[in-house]
Design goal:
The chain is an all-alpha fold and about 100 residues long. It has a single domain, classed as Orthogonal Bundle (Cytochrome Bc1 Complex, Chain D, domain 2), CATH 1.10.760. The longest helix is centred in the first third of the chain and has 20 residues. It is elongated. The termini are far apart.
């Protein structure tokens, strides 16, 4: 009898876990407090980059040229799985290189 009760308890937990997993969860992040430099692609960079990290990750990177920023954006896509379309990624890399490139 105990094994039937235990099996039913486990089944109930499994069903409850599946129901909870299907719910939509909304997370509101605190304000970032970082303002990116204006320029073509700024809005796309602000929205896309903020999906995974704060914008100070951009503003505190060492200065570098287009190749460095292209590499950073490629790493975000390929290694970290950033959900950014290829045309947007190109625009973001160009924006970052023009505004946060070699100083």
């Amino acid at each position: 009898m105990r094994s039937i009760a235990a099996a039913l308890a486990l089944l109930l937990l499994a069903i409850t876990g599946v129901a909870v997993a299907g719910e939509t969860v909304t997370i509101t992040l605190p304000p970032d407090g970082v303002t990116l430099k204006p320029g073509a692609g700024m809005e796309q960079a602000a929205v896309s980059c903020r999906l995974c990290h704060s914008l100070d990750y951009i503003t505190t990177q060492p200065a570098g040229g287009a190749a460095q920023w292209h590499g950073v954006v490629t790493k975000m896509l390929k290694i970290y799985g950033a959900p950014i379309a290829e045309p947007d990624a190109k625009a973001i890399a160009e924006y970052l290189a023009s505004q946060y490139g070699t100083r």
